[in-house]
Structure formats: structure tokens, C-alpha cells
UniProtKB/TrEMBL annotation:
The name this protein goes by in its record: protein-glutamate methylesterase
GO molecular function list: phosphorelay response regulator activity; protein-glutamate methylesterase activity
Residues in CheB-type methylesterase domain copies: 1-183
GO biological process: chemotaxis
Pfam family, one: CheB_methylest
Cellular component GO terms, alphabetical: cytoplasm
Alphabetical list of SUPFAM superfamilies matching this protein: Methylesterase CheB, C-terminal domain
Originating species: Alloacidobacterium dinghuense
């Protein structure tokens, strides 16, 4: 007989405080390994293990590639690397970014479900947008348990809310309740998987191989989904549209992946960047025409100077309209973000 011996946790904004509280109450004799992805900056020399070790009774480390998974250990994905479960080993790989993150939550969740099946417990904590949702769906499909932090208690509620939209049977718990339930679930004996249980959807396996930068899978023309009309924000390639139980995702040929929410956020960012570039070009153009008008005036070319001044005035008016539009867009985005996180 087996127990649930793999806990995978995903967190983003507000995650350090949440993880410190959660890990601080896990017992030293926990009969499971804990794997954590926290969205962080990509710089080397992360202090996350040291920070979490101050709160935890269990050893906390950044694993190296091909580290063997051991019960009673906490493994935190290192900066700029995906952490992927491959049998009893952890792969630490600089594969394609997902939702513009590396490490990302979904590759960990998908790979854990593929290797450990019903022995996995997936936990989604505080964060923005919806990273972790697709992976939690795979965990539940493979018979694993799903826990989502109560959005009302999360510092950033978007990630838990999105997870619950797609995995409505997940347990919704406050931070103090999650360690208690993890302890109960890891102590519970579950039946061994049968051969039928081990038959699984090929798609999560394919996507795990892509995250591992497996070239045979990346070059495979039988990739999941179908071509969309959208370009990858990371590399400009065609995005393939993938839909699972109404949850829409996209992945390009080289493996960059996005949920619809993340893709929409990136498109808004690209539009805003282009508009700011246009505003800069207008301001520079107006300035140039004013300088040309001054020189023409100095050379007593009054008619030419007047033409340059008119052009500068027209461009300045266009720049004002664009600037006002950008201010309104930014205000609307701030209101939308506040509503999503309320």
C-alpha cells in the first residue's frame, strides 16, 4: 500500500510570506517530499532556501539536475530553471518559458502527475493571473488531490480564483488549515495504481518533454492543438491553440507557452509599448520641426519657418491626444488589476 508522498506547491505574488507560514507548521517527520515553484527574478544566488529554512523544520534546498527525490525534504526550484519530476528524479532545466516564467508552476505540476499519479497533492497559493491552473487540472485528472488557498485569505487572489474555476472540486482552505490537511492526506493509505490507472493522456507527457527541451518532441509535427492567428510574444513564432475542458492555452513551435490570460496581458503590454514609442517619435519630430523653424527664421526664410511651426504644432496636438489616451489606458488597467485582485 502507498501514501500520498509528493506535495507540489505553486505560488507567485505574495508567495514568500505564504510559504513561510505554511512550511513553518509542517512536522519534521512529514512522510512526503515537498516541491515548490515560486515565481522569482532570474538572477543567480537565490536566498530562498535560507529564508525558508528559518521557518521550516525540514531541510530546504535548491536541487541540482538529477537530484533523487527523498521524503522529508523541501526542494525549491532555482532561479531561471524549470523543476520537473522525471520518475524518482528531479530535472532542473533551462527549458522554454511558460507564461513568461522560468521556473513555472505548470511544468512541475504536469510532470509530477505523470510520474506519481494519485500520490500527488497539488497546492495553489497566492498569485496573479492563472499559472498553475492547467497543471492542477492534470493532477486531478490523474487522481491526485488538489488544494487551493482561500482567495479571501490570499494576498493576491487571482491565481487561486482561476484554479477554482477549472478545478471546482479542489479543497479551499486558509493558510493555517493547509498544513493540517497535508499531514492528514500524506498519512492516509491509498490503493496502489493498477495498469488501467497508469494509462494516461499523452498530452501532459508531450508538454513535459517540451519543457525539458527534448528536441525529438519539439520537432514532432504531431504536437497538441492547432495553429492559431496569434504570434508568440517571446519569439514571434506561430502559437498553437490548445483547449482542455474549456481552458484555453497556447504554445509555439519551440515550446513557449501561455494561458489566454497571460497572452492577453502580453498583447496589452506590447500595444502600450508601441504607443509609448509612437509618442516618443512624435515628441522628437515636433522638437525637430521647431528647431528647423528657428533656423529658417534666423535665415530670414519666414514662409518656410511658418510651415515648420505649423507642422510642429500639428504634431504636438497629435502627441497630446496620444498622451491623454495612454493616461486613460493606464488608469483603466490599474482599475482592472484592482478588481481582479479584490
Amino acid at each position: 500500500m502507498a501514501n500520498r508522498d509528493l506535495v507540489v506547491i505553486g505560488a507567485s505574488a505574495g508567495g514568500i510570506e505564504a510559504l513561510q507560514q505554511l512550511l513553518g507548521t509542517l512536522p519534521a517527520d512529514l512522510d512526503a517530499a515537498v516541491l515548490i515553484v515560486l515565481h522569482t527574478s532570474n538572477h543567480a544566488g537565490s536566498l530562498l532556501p535560507q529564508i525558508m529554512q528559518h521557518a521550516s523544520k525540514l531541510p530546504v534546498i535548491h536541487p541540482e539536475d538529477r537530484t533523487r527525490i527523498e521524503k522529508g525534504m523541501i526542494y525549491i526550484a532555482p532561479p531561471d530553471r524549470h523543476m520537473i519530476v522525471e520518475g524518482s528524479l528531479l530535472r532542473v532545466i533551462q527549458g522554454p518559458r511558460e507564461n513568461l516564467h522560468r521556473p513555472a508552476i505548470d511544468p512541475l505540476f504536469r510532470s509530477a502527475a505523470s510520474s506519481f499519479g494519485r500520490r500527488v497533492i497539488g497546492v495553489v497559493l497566492t498569485g496573479s493571473l492563472d499559472d498553475g491552473t492547467a497543471g492542477l487540472m492534470v493532477i486531478r485528472a490523474r487522481g491526485g488531490e488538489a488544494i487551493v488557498q482561500d482567495p479571501e485569505s490570499a494576498m493576491f487572489s487571482s491565481m487561486p480564483r482561476c484554479a477554482l474555476e477549472q478545478v471546482p472540486d479542489a479543497q479551499v482552505l486558509s493558510l493555517p488549515e493547509i498544513p493540517v490537511e497535508l499531514l492528514r492526506l500524506t498519512r492516509e493509505i491509498i490503493p496502489e495504481e493498477t495498469a488501467a490507472d497508469r494509462v494516461q493522456d499523452i498530452q501532459p507527457i508531450q508538454e513535459t518533454k517540451i519543457a525539458e527541451f527534448d528536441m525529438s518532441e519539439i520537432e514532432n509535427d504531431g504536437r497538441p492543438g492547432h495553429p492559431s492567428a496569434f504570434a508568440c510574444p517571446d519569439c514571434g513564432g506561430v502559437l498553437w491553440e490548445i483547449e482542455n475542458s474549456g481552458f484555453l492555452r497556447f504554445r509555439c513551435r519551440v515550446g513557449h507557452a501561455f494561458t489566454a490570460r497571460h497572452l492577453g496581458a502580453e498583447q496589452r503590454h506590447a500595444v502600450e509599448t508601441a504607443l509609448w514609442s509612437a509618442l516618443r517619435a512624435l515628441e522628437e519630430s515636433a522638437s525637430l520641426y521647431r528647431r528647423m523653424a528657428d533656423r529658417a527664421t534666423g535665415d530670414n526664410h519666414d514662409e518656410t519657418a511658418e510651415q515648420f511651426e505649423e507642422r510642429a504644432s500639428d504634431i504636438t496636438e497629435n502627441a497630446r491626444v496620444l498622451r491623454d489616451f495612454l493616461i486613460r489606458v493606464n488608469e483603466a488597467n490599474e482599475e482592472r488589476f484592482a478588481m481582479e485582485e479584490s
